[in-house]
Structures are given as structure tokens and as C-alpha cells.
Amino acid sequence: MANKEEKADEKQSSWKDFIYNPRTGEFIGRTASSWALIFLFYLVFYGFLAGMFSLTMWVMLQTLDDHTPRYRDRVANPGLMIRPKYLEIGFNRSIPQQYNKYVQHLESFLQLYNDSIQDANKQCTDGEYFEQDKAEEKQVCQFKRSWLRSCSGLADSTFGYSEGQPCILVKMNRVIGLRPRGDPHINCAAKRETPLQMQYFPTEGTLDKSYFPYYGKTLHANYVQPVVAVKLLLTEEDYNSELVIECKVEGTDLLNNDERDKFLGRVTFRVKVLK
Ligand SMILES: *[C@@H]1O[C@H](CO)[C@@H](O)[C@H](O)[C@H]1NC(C)=O
Ligand SMILES: *[C@@H]1O[C@H](CO)[C@@H](O)[C@H](O)[C@H]1NC(C)=O
């Protein structure tokens, strides 16, 4: 019995010694100064890692511009899109319920182009890039919806849909810093033998240079992009059949015939008007 107790006592004291040994002053096998050195080492080591990380991060961020994305593919080659945002437009011109969604879509798109809003913007010089100093907030060149004449939705609130001569708005996607050369304009054509008559607003389908360059969402907050309205002057033979229409940006250095990307500088849509 006594033997067993002694052994248990011994075991306990060796455990106690391991946790704290009063003879050597060791705590879990190390002296206080040894532990202090280890803590110091890791403190310096992790501090150094954190410092390295912050430094490289800071250097990286210095090379970024707040307003322009760093990596952009196809910098100077915007896509084209149409409004209303449907690539298949079909309706019976006698039934308003069938074309209302197109009209509403055009109307809401043009809200920003209201003459009352655009009066606050700058009247820019046609045919010249509107270059602005980098620091300040950028001014916006005005583009009034009334310039779209019979496609403005002002005189004819159905944008020609009720008379069967619908308007389509063509716009070019915004690309920061883009300065299209030459005389950029939108040209549309029906893909068929006989040409389809169309009317452009502004005349010649011009995308004026004064709307370029665009400086990005933060600097150029109220920027409105130029649009070209195309009124399809359909005649009796054009009704009840599907027309395929392609619009391209022309007269400039922008790509419009890329084989892989059908929207690069061009857009194709279908129109079928029933009468
Ligand atoms: C735009 O003008 C029309 C009438 O001219 C008005 O009903 C509409 O509320 C205006 N929109 C904005 C956003 O000011
Ligand atoms: C278009 O709507 C009118 C009026 O409802 C109708 O008479 C005509 O047949 C429709 N046209 C077609 C091609 O369905």
C-alpha cells in the first residue's frame, strides 16, 4: 500500500516539476528568458511579414488610377447596342398593346436627355474632342432629345410605331478615354437586295467628337452618350415580312467587322411589322 502511494507521489512531483521546476526556474522546460526570446523572435518575424505585405500592397496601389480600370481588353473598340433593347422587334402597328413595351423602353431611356435636364449641360463645339483637365470634375456636353426630331417621342409619343415606321436608337458603349478618329457615324442597311429607306437623326447619323473622351463614372458623373436615331421608312411591301437590319459605326478607326464578336462596332436586329 505504502509503496503505491510513494510512486504516485513521485509521478505527481515530476509533473509539477515539468510545469514549474523551482530548482532550475524552468517553466514547461524553458527558462523565462528563453521564453521571452522566443516571443520576441516571433513578434519580429510576423511584424516583418506584415510590413512586407503592406509595403508591396501600397506599391501596387500607387500604380493604379482611381478612375480608369487598369486591365481593359479592346480598349478602343466599343460595341453597339440598340434601344429598345430587343434584338427582335415585332408588332402589329394597329395594336398598341403589342408595341407599348418598345415605346415605354424608349421613353425611359430618353428621360436623361430631356431638354430641361440638358439645358444645364455645356454647349460644345462640334467636330472637336472635348478634352478636359485631369483633376477637376468633368463637364458634360449636352445632347437634347428634341434633336432626334420625329424620333424624339415629343411630337409623336409612339416614336413612329403606330404609323408602322418605327424608330430605333443606336448607341455605342462607353469606353473611357476613347477618341474615335475621322468622322464617326452610324450607317444601317437591310440585309436584302433592295435597299430600305431610312432617316437618321442627327442627320448623317453622326456621333460627334465633342462627346469624346469619356472620363469614367466617378469623374464624369452626368455624362450622356451620343445616340443616333434611325427611322425605318417601311413601305407597303415591307410589312408582314421579317427584315434583318445591320448597323455599323463607320468613317473611323473603330473595328466593325470582327469575325468572332458580332457586337464590336456593329449590331444586327430583326424587325417585323404587321399591318
Ligand atoms: C422629361 O420631360 C417630360 C415632359 O417634357 C416630363 O414628363 C418628365 O417627367 C421629364 N423627366 C425628367 C426625368 O425630368
Ligand atoms: C393587325 O391588327 C389588325 C387589327 O386588329 C388586324 O385587322 C390585322 O389582321 C392584324 N394583322 C395581322 C397581320 O395579323
TrEMBL record:
Signal peptide feature range: none
UniProt GO BP: intracellular potassium ion homeostasis; intracellular sodium ion homeostasis; potassium ion import across plasma membrane; sodium ion export across plasma membrane
Transmembrane spans: 35-61
GO MF annotation: an example: ATPase activator activity
Entry-linked PROSITE patterns: ATPASE_NA_K_BETA_1, ATPASE_NA_K_BETA_2
InterPro entries: Na/K_ATPase_sub_beta, Na/K_ATPase_sub_beta_sf
Gene Ontology CC: sodium:potassium-exchanging ATPase complex
Record's function text: This is the non-catalytic component of the active enzyme, which catalyzes the hydrolysis of ATP coupled with the exchange of Na(+) and K(+) ions across the plasma membrane. The exact function of the beta-3 subunit is not known.
Protein's UniProt name: Sodium/potassium-transporting ATPase subunit beta
